[in-house]
Specification:
The complex is a heterodimer. Chain A is an all-alpha fold. Chain A has a single domain, classed as MetI-like fold. Chain A is built from 13 helices and 2 strands, in the order αββαααααααααααα. Chain A has helices at 16-44, 64-74, 78-85, 87-120, 126-138, 141-152, 157-165, 178-202, 206-214, 219-247, 251-256, 264-274, 278-309, and strands spanning 47-48, 55-56. In chain A, a hairpin with a 6-residue loop joins strand 1 and strand 2 (55-56). The longest helix of chain A is centred in the N-terminal third of the chain and has 34 residues, at 87-120. Chain A is globular, with a radius of gyration of 25 Å. The two termini of chain A are 29 Å apart. In chain A, 44% of the residues are buried. Chain B has 2 domains: 15-53, no CATH class; 63-273, MetI-like (MetI-like fold, Orthogonal Bundle). Helices cover 71% and strands 0% of the residues of chain B. Chain B is built from 11 helices and no strands. In chain B, helix 3 runs parallel beside helix 6 and helix 3 (64-97) crosses helix 10 (224-232). Chain B is globular. Classes of the chains: A mainly alpha, B mainly alpha. Chains A and B meet through helix 1, helix 4, helix 5, helix 6 and helix 8 of A and helix 1, helix 3, helix 4, helix 5 and helix 6 of B.
Chain lengths: 311, 285
């Protein structure tokens, strides 16, 4: 058992009560986070069946050792071969990675000036500004995406405004395009980019910039030589915090995007809900996790360092 | 708000910075404002402004299915946020105060769900519920939401726990106060603002979730986002604008109330212990 507390905390070793405090959340996460992943992995190696549950083989514990052998013999990598062999899935993964990378880049470009301006605002306005950035995050994600349908639809406010301004003479199609997906993604994930960036920029020691100016360094150069490198931890955390979930995003491309090229979150959703193909949906999920393992590990490293560093 | 200022005012900010702030906030708030305004539009057509009206709110009162979905969502959010706050606070204490083998995998399991795409979390939990033959419904959604939101609770409470002076805790323990009592008498009151903020975040995340609830729900358990989503797929409807406005109003009132409570508590209880910087309202910063 890995959770057995071996090392002594401070002068005393963990008491029974402390062990319970460790065990409750630990066991909860093992049961409802780790074990489900094992099940996804197992089902991704199964075959679709017209049965309940709709896959086979099912591990038959009553049959003992023979049951386990039958079960292992029944596993196959056929679903992964399907994924690799079908352009639909390959394109879906590539599209997701492309959309996530591009929208993260746009988020950096939009988020940096905003976070920088927040950090340079008068100190007494900081708490208010942070609240203002966080507040939309508290209102429903679904509602914020839905709000954009109001604006982007064919007779929506954006087209009305553009017609009125004389920029276009025909209503443009915005909804059900990739542009709409990017707008929705940048809008929904902006707080996730701005807040870590702001946390980094706010800690920035202004005497460094003054020293650079005293020594004759131009302001634009000081920005790239001092401000940007010191903001890198926040930039990294913000970028990963946006990139990773966007790769698997479902709601935004589903409501704002077109039907031509689905992102992988939509593909998984369709396999599961429309095609009822649980094994393929599981294989899609496993490959997605494998793609995201490296960014998630880097994110965890940054997160842990941030919290340890605050002690 | 703190009075200590750097002595600058908004007027001294550079033009570029002010523009960035104004544009950023406008971008964040304009769509929500438009949604709220249009929920009071008398006309059914989005293109036409038909004057102010509350007819869509009146129509909502008749909509039994929508009200049932809202009540279901509130119940699930209350139950899962309560569970998540208890488990998440325990996890935060474990991560900041205990050293033990297996701490690293524990921390990994706390941080991973924060960024894990929802479709994966939803799918994996559903397959678990099927594998153990658990009937899907309110109960399974509560378990799923607790699992997701407890990690957010942990990160918020953890940042508060690692940010304050431990000398009071140590003094109590040195005087023979058992660790459990020290926690409830000293630590918990001090981290209360973070615990409340974490509870509210868990509550609003649960109220908001579509993807995980869609996977883990069963017959008869339709939450508000599932209901809204099925309507929204068919296009914009003024009734949905009204539902969303009520939703936004409830959340806004809760957040403002929480920040007032937090400020009051901080002002009275924790003043001598306050470290530089207010408690972080966001888990990720």
């Amino acid at each position: 058992m890995t959770e057995t507390p071996a090392a002594a905390h401070r002068k005393r070793s963990l008491s029974l009560g402390a062990r319970l405090v460790v065990a409750a959340p630990y066991l909860w996460l093992i049961a409802f986070f780790l074990v489900p992943f094992g099940i996804v992995l197992k089902i991704s190696l199964s075959e679709t069946a017209i049965a309940q549950p709709p896959y086979m083989p099912v591990l038959d514990l009553a049959a003992g050792w023979q049951g386990l052998e039958d079960f292992l013999a029944g596993l196959s990598f056929a679903n992964y071969a399907t994924l690799a062999g079908d352009d639909l899935y390959v394109f879906s993964y590539l599209k997701s990675l492309k959309v996530a990378a591009l929208s993260t880049a746009i988020l950096v470009l939009c988020g940096f000036p905003l976070a920088y301006a927040m950090a340079r605002a008068p100190l007494r306005a900081h708490a208010l500004l942070v609240t203002l950035i966080v507040l939309p995050f508290w209102t429903s994600f679904l509602i914020r995406v839905y709000a954009w349908i109001n604006i982007l639809q064919r007779d929506g406010l954006l087209n009305q405004a553009l017609l009125w301004l004389g920029i276009v003479d025909q209503p443009t199609t915005w909804l059900a395009t990739d542009t709409a997906v990017y707008i929705g993604l940048v809008y929904s994930y902006l707080p996730f980019m701005v807040l870590p960036l702001y946390a980094s920029l706010e800690k920035l020691d202004h005497t460094l910039l003054e020293a650079a100016a005293d020594l004759g360094c131009p302001r634009w150069k000081a920005f790239f030589v001092i401000t940007v490198p010191l903001a890198l931890p926040g930039l990294g955390a913000g970028a990963l915090l946006c990139f990773i979930p966007i790769v698997g995003e479902f709601v935004i491309p589903d409501l704002l995007g077109g039907s031509d090229a689905a992102m992988i979150g939509q593909t998984l959703w369709t396999e599961f809900f429309a095609n009822k193909d649980w094994p393929v949906a599981s294989a899609v999920a496993v490959v997605l996790v494998v793609l995201l393992v490296a960014p998630i590990a880097v994110y965890q490293h940054l997160q842990a360092r941030e919290i340890e560093g605050r002690r | 708000m703190r009075r200590t200022s750097r002595g600058t005012s908004l007027g001294r900010m550079s033009f570029t910075n002010l523009t960035a702030l104004a544009l950023g906030l406008a971008f964040l708030y304009a769509p929500i404002a438009i949604l709220v305004v249009y929920s009071f539009n008398a006309s059914r057509l989005v293109t036409v402004w038909g004057g102010w009206s509350t007819r869509w709110y009146a129509a909502l009162i008749e909509d039994r299915a929508m009200i049932d979905a809202a009540l279901a969502s509130l119940g699930i959010a209350l139950a899962s946020a309560t569970l998540a706050t208890v488990l998440g606070t325990m996890a935060a204490v474990v991560l900041t105060r205990f050293r033990f083998r297996g701490r690293l995998p524990f921390a990994a399991m706390i941080y991973a769900p924060l960024v894990m795409p929802e479709v994966i979390t939803g799918l994996s939990l559903l397959l678990l519920f099927v594998a153990i033959d658990l009937d899907r419904g309110f109960f399974t959604i509560i378990i799923a939401h607790t699992t997701l939101t407890m990690c957010f609770v942990t990160v918020i409470v953890q940042s508060r726990l690692s940010g304050f002076d431990r000398s009071l805790e140590e003094a109590a323990m040195d005087l023979g106060c058992p660790p459990g009592r020290t926690f409830f008498a000293i630590t918990l009151p001090l981290i209360m603002p973070a615990v409340i903020a974490a509870f509210l975040l868990a509550f609003s995340l649960s109220l908001d979730d579509l993807v995980i609830a869609s996977f883990t729900t069963g017959p008869g358990a339709t939450t508000l986002p599932i209901r809204i989503y099925s309507e929204v797929r068919l296009g914009v409807k003024p009734e949905i604008n009204a539902v969303c406005t009520i939703f936004i109003a409830v959340i806004a009132v809760a957040v403002i109330a929480a920040s007032l409570v937090g400020k009051h508590r901080e002002g009275t209880a924790a003043r001598p212990l306050r470290q530089a910087g207010a408690p972080n309202p966001m888990p990720h910063s």
